[in-house]
Amino acid sequence: MTTLKAKLQDDLNAAIKERDELRSSTLRLTLTAITKEEVSGTTKRELSDDEVQKVIAKEAKKRREAAEAFAQGGRTESAEREKAEGVLLDAYLPKQLGDDELEQIVAAAVAEAKAAGAEGPRAMGAVMKIVNPKVAGQAEGGRVAAVVKKLLAG
After folding, report:
1. Following DSSP, what letter does each residue of 106-151 receive, concatenated?
2. Are 22 and 81 in contact (CB under 8 A)?
3. DSSP codes of every residue in 88-101
4. CA 18 to centroid of chain Cα atoms
5. What predicted TM-score, i.e. pTM, was given to this entire model?
6. Residues 87-123: pLDDT tens digits?
């Protein structure tokens, strides 16, 4: 078992003992998503810590989107619970890049792409290929894409 998955399991056991319903249900759902990912495909496999982190990030994103949907639908209690679950999951993820840091990384990638001959909005794919490995797990794709579009538009 990977160290991150083991930490989730240990935290789940502690949450159950403390009768913390929010933490225990959130961690249960996350561990279920991890297990589902492990058994998907043709053979069962053990996920690495990076892969487990991606699953946690996906689950946290689901919580944020659900919170927005509940808030728009006027279900504030459900929205608050989803937000709390998202915050709980964020604790297991690496610190997110700030707007300034992200903009600096993207600016460097735009300069690199322009040096390679990519210009204007059509350079989006080339810039994203350069940026994504550098910010993996530290910034959401939508946020990165928005900054890339902004800098390419000039």
Report:
1. HHHHHHHHHHTT--SGGGHHHHHHHHHHHHTTTS-HHHHHHHHHHH
2. yes
3. HHHTTSPPPPPHHH
4. 28
5. 0.74
6. 898 888 877 777 777 777 777 877 777 776 667 667 7
